[in-house]
Amino acid sequence: MTDRPQRTSLEALTSAKLLVIAPHMDDEVIGCGGLMLLHKDKRKIHCLYASNGARSPWPLLPWQGNRPKNLTELRKREAEQALTEIGLSRQNMIFLDLPDGGLRRVSAQLRETLANEIDRLEPEFILVPFRYDLHSDHVATQRAVRNLAGRGRIKGTVLEYFVYVRWALVPGGDIRQRIRQDRLTTIDISSVATRKHKALTMYRSQTETIFRWQDSPVLTAESVRQRCEQPERFLLSCATEPLAACFSADRHTILLAHYAQRLGKRRKDQLLALCGGKRRSADRETATPIDGE
Ligand SMILES: [Zn+2]
Predict the structure, then answer these.
(1) In Å, what is the CA distance from 166 to each residue of 29, 178, 286, 293?
(2) Strand order of the sheet with strand 18-22?
(3) Would you say 5 and 236 are in contact if contact means Cβ atoms under 8 Å apart?
(4) Positive or negative, the Cα torsion across 171, 176, 181, 182?
(5) Bridge-partner residues for 98, per DSSP?
(6) pLDDT in tens, 178-207
(7) How far is the CA of 164 from the centre of ligand 1 (A)?
(8) What is the pTM of this model?
């Protein structure tokens, strides 16, 4: 980690040892699926799943439907199918089985386990969710790696990938447009878009409705399409800088929008559901405050 981080080249990323750290099964494909497909030697890629994935999909209100059982095994199987599509073997997948929606509560355990895995695998690049992603598990995962990097426990370069790119309260909507462009590496994934789409749809529990109480899948068809057609972007992380230093301008406004969106969206949808409104299940934009429920 240097004081003056530079962007990373496609050439470097697609030939190096990568560790993709995903809070949930599907984050790795959403954020890094194109990069993994473009990589020249899939044996050099490892995917680590921090949570057990047991809480997605999940009803917005407790009485709307039976709380799902056995989601962990289903989502692990889907992860194996998705990564097989990408070309990774089961040996390159690591499941930590920590509580879905509760990674913040086990932050010390998460941190130590990640440190051990990073020591063992010695990745040149470590990919984690964006520091202000709209899910508490994503933030907890990024903070764990940032903490390790800040204490000199990590040798590899840390890059942040994006799962929640649409922010309702930010003008223009796409949070990636508000980040300093000199810190972003953009990868054109158009040559592998179809394969990324196929890998992502292996996550049937996320891309289809699998319970009667769901009125829409966690990831809608439009959302899947966008995530497979748009370029993938990666933010070069620097543990010695303030978190908000990644934004090009309007930092206070963006932080306020982040706070308001995380606090308000799920509550609003719950209220809608309570009043007989449309939404009945948590989707990708409302999954945030599971922690502590
Ligand atoms: Zn996630």
Answers:
(1) 17, 12, 12, 24
(2) 93-98, 45-51, 18-22, 125-129, 157-161, 232-236, 184-187
(3) yes
(4) positive
(5) 51
(6) 999 999 999 999 999 999 999 999 999 999
(7) 9
(8) 0.88
Full set of structural domains in the chain with CATH: 10-274 (3.40.50.10320)
Q: What is the pLDDT of residues 145-175, one digit of tens each?
A: 999 999 999 999 999 999 998 887 787 788 9
105 exposed, middle or buried (CB, 10 Å; 0-12, 13-18, 19+)? middle
**The two three-digit tokens of residue 59, written as one number:** 């009803």
CA of 163 relative to ligand 1 center, distance in Å:
7
Task: Taking the CA atoms of 138, 144, 148 and 150 in sequence, report the sign of the dihedral they define.
Answer: positive
CB 138 within 8 A of CB 49: no
- Using the mean position of ligand 1's atoms as its centre, give its distance from the Cα of residue 137 in Å: 7
209's enclosing H/E stretch is none
